[in-house]
């Protein structure tokens, strides 16, 4: 073939490709997209954008959105994927067009920040049932706030596609949103002034193992089951939720993740959280391939017997394991050793007899504070006091703190006292102290500058301290920004 004829064929081929892209084709439809690519979606601004789907093996696929385009070919299994160059933030709706033998057009696409919102029943808790949630959506309908609600599914193997849809925030749709996710996103919208997309993947009573991939669970030490444990959701493949709800979203570009989980890890399972939760974070980051994206999580609220011992052991008087929430909270805090993580303390936002306390406004606010400082660069105090060190001074112990903000104070829960939680002048509670016999007694506690001084007549030679170490703790130490101190223990005892 002469060079001239070859050029003619090449130009003709390009013209045919362009014609197919612009006008569609009469050939049988073959291209499919995951559910996350649908009308009203929010695409992540400022990063490379993966787009993927299914087609016939060898089929050419073309993608275009907001002036950027790309082309690829489906592999032998019919899978295709391409990556578009970063796009700037935009509140002006655009379209995403995918063209092969058939043409798919996704309408009303915004470019902003996308956050994963995942976990159990407290993350699933709907806005309609939250304090302040019933009237809020009608007052704050927001076209630039969108939720993708993932439908509950499980799978023995990683699934393609998933199930769910994007919805725009208004008085009709917002009532079913995660209350925590909504209040988090609303606060970000108020300061970042860009579209926010929330991908909500929530399911009550799902153990942390079900949210981790098979490869993540088989890492040493392995948490894969060694026998057929039955058919209940907690006993299925310890990756069942990951396979059907998380894997179909990978590698959709995101800013980060907010996580609220742990209610189902009671009893003996509470001991495993310190290893499994950090593993989940590493597993998701590896799956997405975006590096250590922000992972912000909620430490469990107060729940249980408010009249129990000042330090709750893992085993009860009858030898049976207790609920174990102090150990789950500590297990969650272990994830702070990983880069780009943050923890919202909520021990003051619970109710003694309510597994799903209705104050989700302050949970969302505290998560948003973490994001506003660590992701959006605001100069603010984003967490309450956390244990730094202790020093024995005769019959007393001096406790030093991180994140004291503008000072330590005694306060009450914002859930109980309204928007201004700081109330000084009451007795400091929640501390326990022990000697070398490991017997715990309530400690007399007093704020002294940036320290807290602890003592007890029952412990003349103190060696260890704990704070808020019970299911429903009574501690009331805050910084003056109104954020509560995190539970902690100075001893290294590990329950059997």
Question: Can you offer a commentary on this structure?
Answer:
- The chain is of the alpha/beta class and 496 residues long.
- The protein has three domains: 19-104, Sandwich (Immunoglobulin-like); 110-374, Rossmann fold; 386-489, no CATH class.
- The chain is 20% helix and 27% strand.
- The chain has ten helices and 23 strands.
- The protein has helices spanning 3-23, 121-124, 136-139, 179-192, 214-218, 240-246, 273-288, 325-333, 361-374, 414-417, and strands at residues 42-44, 49-54, 60-65, 68-73, 79-84, 90-99, 103-119, 142-150, 164-169, 196-202, 256-260, 295-298, 341-344, 386-393, 396-402, 408-410, 431-434, 440-442, 444-448, 451-455, 464-467, 477-479, 488-489.
- Strands 1, 3, 4, 6, 7, 8, 9, 10, 11, 12 and 13 form an eleven-stranded mixed β-sheet that branches. It has a four-stranded antiparallel β-sheet with strand order 14-15-20-19, with no helix packed on it.
């Amino acid at each position: 073939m002469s060079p001239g004829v070859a050029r003619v064929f090449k130009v003709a081929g390009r013209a045919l490709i362009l014609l197919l892209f612009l006008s569609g084709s009469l050939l049988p439809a073959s291209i499919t997209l995951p559910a996350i690519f649908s009308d009203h979606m929010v695409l992540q601004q400022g990063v490379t954008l993966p787009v993927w789907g299914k087609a016939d093996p060898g089929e050419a696929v073309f993608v275009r959105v907001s002036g950027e385009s790309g082309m690829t070919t489906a592999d032998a299994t019919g899978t295709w994927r391409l990556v578009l160059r970063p796009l700037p933030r935009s509140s002006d709706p655009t379209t995403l067009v995918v063209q092969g033998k058939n043409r798919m057009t996704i309408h009303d696409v915004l470019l902003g920040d996308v956050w994963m919102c995942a976990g159990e029943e407290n993350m699933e808790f709907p806005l309609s049932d939250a304090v302040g949630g019933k009237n809020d959506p009608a007052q704050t309908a927001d076209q630039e706030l969108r939720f993708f609600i993932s439908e509950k599914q499980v799978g023995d193997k990683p699934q393609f596609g998933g199930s769910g849809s994007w919805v725009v925030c208004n008085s009709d749709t917002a009532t079913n949103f995660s209350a925590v996710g909504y209040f988090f996103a609303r606060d970000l919208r108020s300061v970042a002034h860009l579209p926010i997309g929330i991908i909500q993947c929530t399911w009550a009573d799902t153990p942390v193992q079900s949210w981790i991939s098979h490869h993540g669970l088989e890492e040493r030490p392995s948490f894969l089951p060694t026998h057929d444990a039955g058919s209940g959701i907690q006993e299925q493949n310890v990756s069942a939720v990951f396979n059907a709800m998380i894997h179909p979203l990978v590698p959709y570009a995101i800013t980060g993740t907010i996580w609220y989980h742990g209610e189902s890890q009671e009893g003996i399972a509470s001991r495993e959280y310190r290893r499994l939760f950090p593993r989940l974070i590493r597993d998701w980051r590896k799956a997405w391939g975006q590096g250590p994206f922000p992972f912000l999580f909620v430490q469990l609220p107060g729940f249980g017997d408010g009249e129990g011992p000042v330090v709750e052991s893992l085993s009860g008087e009858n030898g049976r394991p207790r609920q174990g929430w102090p150990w789950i909270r500590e297990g969650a805090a272990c994830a702070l050793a990983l880069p780009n993580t943050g923890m919202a303390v909520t021990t003051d936002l619970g109710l003694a007899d309510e597994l799903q306390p209705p104050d989700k406004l302050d949970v969302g606010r505290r998560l948003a504070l973490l994001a506003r400082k660590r992701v959006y660069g605001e100069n603010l105090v984003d967490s309450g006091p956390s244990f730094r060190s202790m020093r024995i001074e005769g019959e007393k112990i001096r406790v030093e703190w991180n994140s004291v903000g503008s000072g330590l104070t005694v306060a009450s829960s914002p859930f109980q006292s309204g928007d201004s939680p700081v109330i000084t002048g009451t007795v400091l509670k929640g501390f326990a102290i022990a000697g070398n016999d490991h017997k715990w007694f309530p400690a007399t506690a007093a704020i002294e500058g940036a320290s807290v001084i602890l003592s007890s007549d029952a412990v003349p030679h103190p060696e260890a301290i704990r704070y808020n170490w019970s299911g429903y703790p009574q501690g009331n130490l805050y910084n003056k920004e109104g954020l509560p101190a995190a539970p902690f223990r100075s001893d290294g005892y590990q329950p059997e």
